[in-house]
């Protein structure tokens, strides 16, 4: 089987090198780009593989890169790398059609899993996906307060900000967060956001 191709776009050379090394040892074919414009200039049409791009870059950022890829008719699956606290950007990226996002610093396995599922899927999950329907059903079991916390988490709020908005302590927010994560069966915030976007709740 031909090795899967990953186009890595990041303005940080050390980051590009470490990702290239990891993916190379896992048998992926890797192409590196310092900027989104490099990728747009060098990408053949039709292109194969998937794109792994940082969301915050000088020049054109990850969101603009995604927009330009789509307007150029490139439908490659795209995985975004985001810094801590970039949840609203990640939500926007997924609405634009990104397959997934992964928060830095990430562990190797999480990155490999995100890329494998992006390559396998090749496109964002449809709203008819049984997993999405199941998530919507689980959200329906949340209490009103848990749902309020969910909405604000997906909008990128911190426990402090959510507590201020709902007039409860950050500690209480954490308790509601733990309950809603258990009820929705989301493994982490990234998964919760992904499901919420696919289900049209974000």
UniProtKB/TrEMBL annotation:
Q: Which domain of life is it from?
A: Bacteria
UniProt keyword annotation of Phosphoprotein present:
yes
Q: Where is the Response regulatory domain?
A: 5-119
Q: Name one Pfam family in it.
A: GerE
Listed under GO biological process in this entry are:
phosphorelay signal transduction system; regulation of DNA-templated transcription
- Gene Ontology molecular function: any one: DNA binding
In the record, 4-aspartylphosphate modifications are located at 54
Every HTH luxR-type domain range: 135-200
> Which keywords belong to this entry?
DNA-binding, Phosphoprotein, Transcription, Transcription regulation, Two-component regulatory system
Q: What is this protein called?
A: Transcriptional regulatory protein FixJ
Q: Which organism does this sequence originate in?
A: Methylobacterium symbioticum
Name of the gene encoding the protein in the UniProt record = fixJ_6
